[in-house]
Amino acid sequence: MNAPNFQQKPGLVTAIAVMILTSGIINLFWGFVASATALGTIIGVVCLPITILPTILGVFEIVYAAKLLSAQPQPVQPSPSIAIFEILTFMMGNLFSMVVGILSLIFYNDLSVKEYFARLNGQPVPAPSPAPVLPQPVDQPVDELPAPAEVESPKPKRKPGTRKVA
Fold first, then answer.
1. pTM here?
2. Which of 42, 88, 103, 104 could form a disulfide bond with 83, CB atoms 3.0-4.6 angstroms apart?
3. What is the SS3 assignment for 125-164?
4. Does residue 53 lie in a domain region?
5. Where are the alpha helices (DSSP H) in the chain?
6. Which domain holds residue 61?
7. Cα 154–chain centre separation
8. How would you label 64-92 residue by residue, b for 16+ Cβ within 10 Å and e otherwise?
9. For the segment 58-69, what is each residue's pLDDT rounded down to a tens digit?
């Protein structure tokens, strides 16, 4: 039996899913370590809500990647919001997630990825935008180019009301 067309995942979709899953696992551990470190001080307890944010992002990343990697594809939209939150993790010192977020945004703009998500969600496949038509240069041999017009030197103008004395 032939598989439906949307089960043919482009390589970029699989790459997005694996990168997001890896980033989710790293963010989960990153958040646990940051929270455990913050619990060691009184000031850290005040900052605990900030240290929990990578853990929450990690959970969302793992759930999203699981939907993308599942054998039975589920209708799911591209998630630029997760990618943006991944980029913002550089403020917590997590450069790996920042790179994953940037690459995810780049991969979401690929035509094959857009078509895959459109087919998966039952939407019409976006038509590719036509390339702009640029004017073509006229190929003329140098010998056939028109000769430049000779420029006459302009005669000096006289002021009105002045006469030439002889």
1. 0.68
2. 104
3. CCCCCCCCCCCCCCCCCHHHCCCCCCCCCCCCCCCCCCCC
4. yes
5. 11-38, 42-46, 48-69, 80-88, 95-108, 111-120
6. 18-120
7. 59
8. bbeebbeeebeeeebbeebbebbbebeeb
9. 999 999 999 999
Q: What percent of the chain has pLDDT over 90?
A: 32
The CA-CA-CA angle for residues 112, 102, 33, to 5°, reads 125
Amino acid letter, 129: S
Residue 13 corresponds to which amino acid? V
Flag whether 162 is in a domain: no
Count the domains in the chain. Answer: 1
Q: Yes or no: say if 108 and 83 are a contact pair by the CB < 8 Å rule.
A: yes
Is there a domain that residue 155 lies in? no
